[in-house]
Amino acid sequence: MKSLAILSWKFGIAASLGAVLLVVGLTTGASAQRVAPESAGAIKQSFAPVVKQAAPAVVNVYVRRKVEQMVSPFANDPFFSRLFGQNFGIPRERIQNSLGSGVIVSADGVVVTNNHVIQGGGKGAEITVALADGREFPANLILKDEQTDLAVLRLEAKGVAFPSIVFADSDSLEVGDLVLAIGDPFGVGQTVTSGIVSALARTKVGVSDYQFFIQTDAAINPGNSGGALVDIDGYLVGINTAIFSRSGGSHGIGFAIPSNMVRLVVQSALEGGTVQRPWFGASLQNLTPDIADSLGLDTPRGALVKDINEKGPAARAGLAVGDVIVSVDEREVENPQAFNYRFATKGIGGEAKLGVWRAGKPFKAAVTLRAPVEDPPRDTRDLAGRHPLAGAKVANLSPAVAQELAMEDDGRLGVVVLDVAAGTPAARLGLRRGDIIASVNEQKILHVDGLEDALGAGPGVWRLAVQRGDRVLNVTVQG
What we know:
479 residues; Pdz3 Domain; 11 helices
């Protein structure tokens, strides 16, 4: 079995345009006519001008944070470990450092990197960005998006014009296009590798919620996360995120988040600090050959509507359970992950034109691109008291909450777990983020108020039903 290694990287491109122009503007370089080398002399042409243009915007991202660690002379003793667990000892603070890479995407110092590079870089953490020319600047985290594994920083440097990179339209990439990878693998220093786009729309990588990656054989190694994949015009086509590796080194299978998704996250950071993705209002599933054949489709390509929120945009556009979505704005979708990417990168406002297959015939549906609603209001609460769910943070389930948790949106009501504090009864019960509290002592739970009432009325025995994905877990807890 292949193991997935998270990697780090740096890269960029000099450009002195304003932030909004850099973020919104597309380039036409990637859509230019592609020509194969016509002679040995053409093959010997150098990428040096592209590298010289791009290298100044390559940065390293350093995160320095204080962490508390339990120190005990019996830490390695199996008897004491079984008796007291891992929290036995004297708490001491130590400094933890992490290193990754990032790309400057606007001249006023906006940097994009991977979320896992700055993971934990919240309150109390110090983030420093080092430029290729040796200058260092403190940076503030203005947005992190776990669903795409992206984070956006802003350098603290008023009046400084930074070298930056221009976004390309990643949808214009084709398999076989040349790309460059510039980074700092294993901390050896800035390194440039070249390769081709090996595949597009990879949806089974397992790194983030939005599975739609560019695959390349340009050598990518640990130490490259958050860096850039660029085309031969020097424009940003992706942020490198992961590799498949058995040894931890490059085997020629690297993955990058497409620049169109990166642009959406950067725009969100600049416009308000939160990522807003359009609300679809339906849950989807993969097509199997048997299902495709029964629906009259030649190939099992598309996203099958499994459940639908009757109040959502999909239902209002006329979609129904059993429909198969085959395209978004004339771009084919192979599976639900590809649809989620195509739909999410449309942003808020306007419509998305869907190609749909129903009862053996194609038709078009126009879905309004609007933000998900909080209906009912989330009513977030930290549960406390003498019951098995103490220590859980819960909220009412709504389309907005479902999207934040990457959950299916079928319009159901319920109470969902947002977080679980360590060492609490809820943690010992095994409760997880995204679990839905379906019932307590046979009483169906629809809202947070009802959950707290049911827990408070417990006779000392709690019979809980917890929905986790497609499974329902039943557990009885004695008080």
